[in-house]
Every structure is written in C-alpha cells, then in structure tokens.
Amino acid sequence: PHAGPVESKNEAAMSELVPEPRQKPVVPMKPMGINASLLGYIGIDTIIEQMRKKTMKTGFDFNIMVVGQSGLGKSTLVNTLFKSQVSRKSSGWNREEKIPKTVEIKAIGHVIEEGGVKMKLTVIDTPGFGDQINNENCWEPIEKYINEQYEKFLKEEVNIARKKRIPDTRVHCCLYFISPTGHSLRPLDLEFMKHLSKVVNIIPVIAKADTMTLEEKTEFKQRVRKELEVNGIEFYPQKEFDEDLEDKTENDKIRQESMPFAVVGSDKEYQVNGKRVLGRKTPWGIIEVENLNHCEFALLRDFVIRTHLQDLKEVTHNIHYETYRAKRLNGNGGLPPMTVETEENHESNL
Amino acid sequence: QNVGCRTLSLSAHVGFDSLPDQLLRKSIKHGFCFNILCIGETGIGKSALMSSLFNTNFQDSPSTHFLSSVRLRAQTRELQESNVLLKLTVVKTVGFGDQVNKADTYQPIVDYIDAQFEAYLEEELKVIRSLFSYHDTRIHVCLYFISPTGRSLKTIDLLTMRSLDSKVNIIPVIGKADSISKAELQEFKKKIMSELVSNGIRIYQFPTDDETVSEINTITNGYLPFAVVGSMEKVKIGNQMVRARQYPWGIVKVENESHCDTIKLRRMLCTNMEDLKEKTRAYYESYRRCRLEKLGCRDIGPENKPVSLQEVIEAKRLEFCLEMERKEEEIKQRFFQRVNEKSAMLEEAELQASMPVLTKYERLLLMHQEEELKLEEKKKFLEAEIAELIEKKAFTVSIQSQVSVSTPVVSLK
User: Fold this and answer.
1) CA distance linking residue B224 with residue B203, whole number of Å
2) Is the CB of B17 less than 8 angstroms away from the CB of A5?
3) What does the record list as coiled-coil region(s) (chain B) (predicted)?
4) CATH no., domain A63-88+100-128+137-157+166-265+292-332
5) How far apart are CA A31 and CA B74, in angstroms?
C-alpha cells in the first residue's frame, strides 16, 4: 500500500508549470527469505500506519540556515520556498546604522502546517557575512553557532533523566548563496565552504540567476562544480553517504548536472497567460519563479523539501552530530569548553 | 517546544506534507525489528503458539525437564509482508518451573532482560558508535504463559511477573487453553486479573488514547489474559490446510476466534508494535537512569549546579587514568625491585660458585711460584757449587804441576 502526498487545490495549478517529482516507488518486494512462509495474512505491515500516525502526532523540526552577502536575495528565496513570511528582509544599512562588526546569527522559528503535517521551521539568518572590508574568519561565528547547537543536543542526550523528545535546534541545511558573477567562485566562498562542509550539509545556490543567459548559466555552473571538486569541497548530497545504488544514481544526477541550483526568488504575483504566478517583472518580460525554463527554483524546492528533507535531517543526526560528539568525548579534541547560548539570545516573533 | 513560535499560514502548496512518506520510505528500507520473550513451563506450548502467530516454524528440539537452572534460547526469523521486512526474535525460557527449588527461577530472566538493556547502553555510551545500524535486542513484549489449571495463579507466576513488570511489557496468556471449558475459562480469567490487581502487578494495557483504536483496544483489554491455543500441525478442513488440533471429539481451529484468542493476540501484537516499542524505550530510560546513578553520576552537582554526565564521565575517566598510572608506577617499582633483588642474588651465587675455582687456581699458581722459587734457589746453589768445584779443580791442577817440578826423581839403587 502506497500513500501519496495530499494534493491541495493550488497544487493542481502549479503542476502545469512544474512537473511533479516522479513518485519514488516503494521498495519492491524482495524475494522471500528461506524462513518466511507466510500463507496467511499476519498484519505486520500495519506498522507503517502506526509509524505514520506517530510522526504526524509528534510533528517535525527543520532548521535551515542561509549564508551569503547581503543583497543576494536570501530572505526572498526562503520566503518563496516556504510560501510565507518566514524571514524578514533586511532593509540594508542606512547611513546612520553601523554595519555590524561581526556576523550576527538570527534564528526565527515558525510553526507551519500542511496536509496534517506540523512543522516547526527555524530560519537562521547570518547578516553581516562577507560585508566587511576584512572578512577574514567571518565564518567563525557561524561555525560556532552550529557547534553550539550540537553541544546543546549532546548535553540533553547525556543527561541522566532525559526528555522523551530532545528539541532539535541543529542546523539541518545551510544554503550558501553564490554571487552570479559568471566567472568563478570567490576566495571567501571557497574558504567558507571548505570549513563548513565538514560540519553541516551545505547546498550551494547561485543567487539572482536572472542576470545570466542560459549559456552563461551552464558554463558558470560547470566552472563552479569544477572548482568545488578541485578544492575538495563535499556539498550535500555527499558521495560517501549514498546508502545504496538507488540513492547513488539519483544523487549522481543531481550532483553532476543540476547543482548548484541557479535560482530566482520572489514574493510578488503577476498574471501570466491567465494564471497568477510568482515572478519578477522587468521591462523585457516577467520571470516566472516556478517555471523550469526560467530558473531552477522548482528543482531546489523539490530537492530540499519534497524529496530530501528527511535525509538532510538524518545525515545531520547520524553523521555530523556523531562526528562532533566523538570529538567532544575524546577529550575535547581541540574544541574549547562551550558556553551555550541561552534562549533569550534568539529572536522570537513580535 | 512550540512556545514563542507563531503559526504561519502558507499561501500555496509547499510540499513538506510528503515528510512522513520520506520518513517511512527510509524506515522500510532500513527494516524493522521486534523481540518477544516467552516465559512458561516446559511443554506449555510456547513454540506452538509462536509458530501459529507468525506462520513460521519456531520449533525447538524437545527439552528435558531436568535442567538445573532456567536458560533462555533465542531464535531469529526474517518475515516479510508486502514491503515490510521484519526481523523477529523469539526468546523462550527453557526449564522454567522444572526445578524442585524454584527460588531463583526468575533471576536468569531478569538478568537476560537487563543484559539487553546493558548492551544497548554500552553502544550508546561508546565514543564512536553506530546506533543507526545497531541490531536492537531489547525485549519489546513478554508473553507470560499461565498454566490452564482453572484455579488461580501460582506463586511462581506472581513472583516472576512482579520481578519483571518494571522492566518489560507483560501480556499474560493462558497456554493450552483448549483444556478448559468456556464456562470455566471466564471464571479463570476473572480470577487471574483480580489476583494480578491485588498483587500490584502491572501488565501491559493496550493504549486507549487514540480515538481510532481506543474502542477496539478497550474491548480487547477486557479479554485479557488471552486464552491461546497453538499448533504446529495443519489439518485438512474442506479443501484448505489450517492450523488446528484434532481430537476424537472435534477439531480446535487455532484461527477461529470462537475457539480461542490466538487471533486476537496476533492482531493486538501487530497493531500495537509501535506502542510496545515506545514503552520499551521508556523502560530502557529508567534502567539507564538507575545504572548511571549507580555509577555515581548525577544531574545536579554538590552545589546544585547541573553536572553534565559528560563531565562526570570525563572526571571518572581522569580518575581511572590516574589510577592506571599509579598502578603502572607501582608495578614498575615492584619490577625493578625484584630485578635488583634477583641480580644481587645472582651476583652472590656467582661469587660463591666462582670462589673455590679462583682459590684453587690461585693456590696452584702460588705453588707453582713457590716451586719455581725453590728451583731457582737450588739452581743458584748448584751453580755456586759448580763454581767452587771448578775453582778447586784449578787449584789442584796448579799444585800438581808445581809438585812435579820441584821433586827430583829419586831412584832407589
């Protein structure tokens, strides 16, 4: 028995622009083991429904971080991804305001629900990244934040009397915004990704992709992929974590052809061919965000949300967190003793 | 958890409602596991029931009644239904209730359950661990087989269940229930349940908090303990082979709900697997808490500041390292001491052994020297004598020659 996602009315409208991701077939029946000789129905497969009910009841957590220089459209993209104002756009720095000396970390949480599935989504913004004159080590506050979340989880896990469900504030996914220069990656991009790809899942995206033609886009992507490979940067989905052949073939295609996704974000709607679509209006036409001919936003959305969301969480929990834990329990492994940020430092909604 | 978080409404379909599907797909790929413990006297029908419940052969070689202590035997089977792969482990007691003195009958069982918790705890506390691929052997449900005496529970039943009810989900069943008549059965069930209650033994209650299952679960809770019949053999009824027990007076069909509760038990086990596993996790947590507290760890330190287990482990590790170092030093010292003693001994012995040889040699040497001296002396003495004699000879020769010159020859005429 295979249940598909619940289709809402909007889905029908969207599906004409965006092909639905091919429904992954449930694992085909393996040949019967020697010991199994099920003549009658036992009822073991009801465990699937039990698990589904349980997960729907407890809900999910998802924490996504956006990193990139200001003005690359990070907040807009996240809002477009989650179809709501989950991230507040910064209005830039005016003359009176001082540019923050270091990178700030701002985490904002919202609860969103769809099809009976409740999700606590936390968007972690990093204003100030790459905006100073001297950007040396500007990834350090970010790395510190990520490690602090691992530390928080570890402390809870190591308690004698543990909570039934430990709150998960670990960063599951980090979208890194690349400037669409058309040439190559900047040294800052490489530095950041080199340091952080070992502690968190990094998904590089090319921001404001509407400034490149199709040929420029393809060339730029190829060059970026090459540079990442040459520098030994493993972005998500990492090759070494492919679980089986099925995963490998699917992920190979994404790694070698689609990524990094060249995206455009927008929260404004326009009329195109009698339909209301999200887009950017320019004198030379309307760029439709969810049109695959215009940009790869839909691919990014499907990748992050519709097919790999759970996997992002699992890689974070089973690999990145375990690596941190092992280092920590092996006598600090070079990490300074942690002072964990308390809840008050996180911005909550007004 | 959601305190301080505002709920936002979505303006369009995002697509994260596929999240449960994504999770389930991964779980299915990974497979499921379930562990059942069957406690019951030899011959009460544990293997037969397991085989009937899961349509798989769980038969053992027949065991003797003369084992000196209770042992546990585990069997694992991989079952598959549509796309669900289940690794089912059935652990059975061997020799339960056979001993003349039943005082320690339940201890091996308690130890076994604790050992599974301990194994999981060990894995969890490792620095480099692989919890994701760890084969969970913790017992998820314990089926306790009650003898179909028709009277009441035995003391051993009460003792065993009481020792286990804080560690595992217990579902009491009446084994070989086809030996009790329907009328007696109702009375028997009522008696058992009241005895369990009056002895404060907690058995597993099927969850009634979810509306979809609360009704059926409440009804099923009323059927406890399940009167079960199992069979390894199949009997041809109509044109089907069904599991049944054939008597001269009729056939007891295992899967007929009016004959016995086996099907109810199967349905309840399968539809509440997740809940049983959830409650097992809670039992594990309390085991873990006790265990760690026994090791001397606390969540709150002496100044009422939260002490992390990690710090305690760190402190204990340092303590342990220091202890090891101290012991190492001690052993080293002792070793050197012994070496010194031994070498002194050896030197002593060597001295002793070599002394007569040396003296002998020295003596001989001395003797030789003395002899040499004597001989030297004699040599000198003799040489002196020779010299003297040569002198004398010379003198004598000279006198003789003088005498021959001075004496004329006088002839006697």
Assistant:
1) 10
2) yes
3) 358-392
4) 3.40.50.300
5) 25
What is chain B's Cα-based Rg?
50
Going along B217-285, which residue ranges are E strands?
226-227, 234-237, 240-247, 250-253
Burial class (CB in 10 A: 0-12, 13-18, 19+), B216: middle
CA angle (B17 as vertex; A90, B277 as ends), nearest 5: 120
Q: Which of residues 22-41 of B touch A (CB under 8 A)?
A: 22-29, 32
Q: What is the pLDDT of residues B33-73, one digit of tens each?
A: 999 999 998 888 899 899 889 888 887 777 777 777 888 89
Nearest residue in chain B measured CA to CA from A20: B15
Tokens of A33: 């083991």
User: Across the interface, do B19 and A119 touch by the CB < 8 Å criterion?
Assistant: yes
Please report, for chain A, the start and end positions of each structural domain, with discontinuous segments joined by +.
63-88+100-128+137-157+166-265+292-332
Cβ neighbours of residue B80 closer than 8 Å, sequence gap 6 or more: A29, A30, A32, A33, A36, A38, B86
pTM over 0.90: no
In this complex, the residue of B16, B28, B282 whose CB is nearest that of residue A119 is B16
Does B82 contact A6 at a Cβ distance shorter than 8 Å?
no
Size of interface A-B (CB pairs under 8 A): 231
- CA dist A268 and A85 (Å) reads 12
List CB contacts (< 8 A) between B266 and chain A.
42-43
Q: Closest to B308 (Cβ–Cβ): which among A46, A112, A155?
A: A155
Q: What is the pLDDT of residues A215-235, one digit of tens each?
A: 888 899 999 999 998 998 988
Residues of A in contact with B313 (CB under 8 A): 158, 329
In chain A, the largest separation of any two C-alpha atoms, in whole Å, equals: 78
